[in-house]
Amino acid sequence: MSVENTPSTAAQEAANPAVDGSELIRFENVTKRYGSNVVLDSLCFDVASGKHVTLIGPSGSGKTTILRLLMTLVKPDEGTIKVAGEYLSHEERNGKLVPAGERHSREVRKKIGMVFQQFNLFPNMKVLRNITEAPVHVLGLSKDEAEQRARELLELVGLTDHLDKYPSQLSGGQQQRVAIARALAMRPQVLLLDEVTSALDPELVAGVLDVLRDIAHSTDITMLCVTHEMNFARDISDDVLMFDAGHVIESGSPEKIFSDPEHERTREFLSAVL
Ligand SMILES: Nc1ncnc2c1ncn2[C@@H]1O[C@H](COP(=O)(O)OP(=O)(O)OP(=O)(O)O)[C@@H](O)[C@H]1O
C-alpha cells in the first residue's frame, strides 16, 4: 500500500489535540515504511495519561504497526516516540538524539504492557507462573510478592480457580484473561490491546471484553486499543482515532465518531463494520 505524502493540516490538527503536558504517549512526525510501502506518514498524535484511546480503520491502515512501534518490535524510519516523557525510539547522548540502544528501550518499555491476538502464553508454565515470571525476572520482585500480585490479578480476571492449570487446559477466553493478568502484573502505565478477541470463538468474546471494561472503568491505566468491536470501543473510549492510509483522518469522542462522523471514509468504514 502506498500513501500520499501530504497529510492535510486539518487532519494533523485533528490528530494532535492541544497538549496539556500530561500526555503519556507522543508520536511526533513518525514515518514507517516497508520498502516502498509508506505505512505511517509523518504521524502525530498524543494519548493523555489515564485516557482510553481506540484506533479504528480499514485493514492495512497501520494500526497494529503503531502498537508494534510502542513495543519496539519495529523502529520508526523518521520521527520520535515518547512514553511518559522519555524517548522510546531514541536516547540522548552528549546532548544529541541518537537511535535508542536495546538497554534504553527495555527500560522505557517496562512502562508498557501488551495483550496480543494470540495470547502468547508460555505453554510449559502453569497459569500462576505465566504471571509471576516477568515480575520476578524483569522487575526483581520476590517470588512471594509476585505470587500475591498474581493472585489479586487472577481474581480481577475471574480465574482464581485456575492458577494451577496449564494454558492448554483453558479455553481461549480464559487464556486471554490470563494474558491480561500477565500484562498487568508488570504494573504498566499503558496497556496496549491488539484485537484481543479476534482469535476467540464468538461465545467467548463477551467474557474477555467484560474484564477489559472493568479494568478500564476501575483503574487509572492508560489504554491504547485496536479493535473491531465497535460497541466495546464506544463503551471504553475517551477518544477514537480513525486511520486511513497511514494518517489519522478524524478523531473525537466515540459519540461523535460513531454517530456523526465528518469524513466520508469514516462513514464508509463504519457502515461496513457496524
Ligand atoms: N513485517 C512487515 N513487512 C512488510 N510489510 C508489513 C509488515 N508488517 C506490516 N506490513 C504492512 O504494513 C501495512 C499496515 O499493517 P498493519 O498491520 O499495521 O495494519 P492494520 O491497520 O493493523 O491492519 P489489520 O486491521 O488488518 O490488522 C500493511 O500494508 C501491511 O502489509
UniProtKB/TrEMBL annotation:
Lineage top rank: taxon: Bacteria
Cell compartment(s), UniProt: Cell membrane
Matches recorded under SMART domains: AAA
Keywords: Amino-acid transport, ATP-binding, Cell membrane, Membrane, Nucleotide-binding, Transport
GO terms assigned for molecular function: ABC-type amino acid transporter activity; ATP binding; ATP hydrolysis activity
Membrane topology: Peripheral membrane protein
InterPro entries in UniProt: AAA+_ATPase (IPR003593), ABC_ATPase_HisP-typ (IPR030679), ABC_transporter-like_ATP-bd (IPR003439), ABC_transporter-like_CS (IPR017871), Ectoine_EhuA (IPR014343), MetN_ABC_transporter-like (IPR050086), P-loop_NTPase (IPR027417)
A single Gene Ontology CC term: plasma membrane
UniProt similarity note: Belongs to the ABC transporter superfamily.
Protein name as annotated: Ectoine/hydroxyectoine ABC transporter ATP-binding protein EhuA
Gene from which this protein is expressed: ehuA
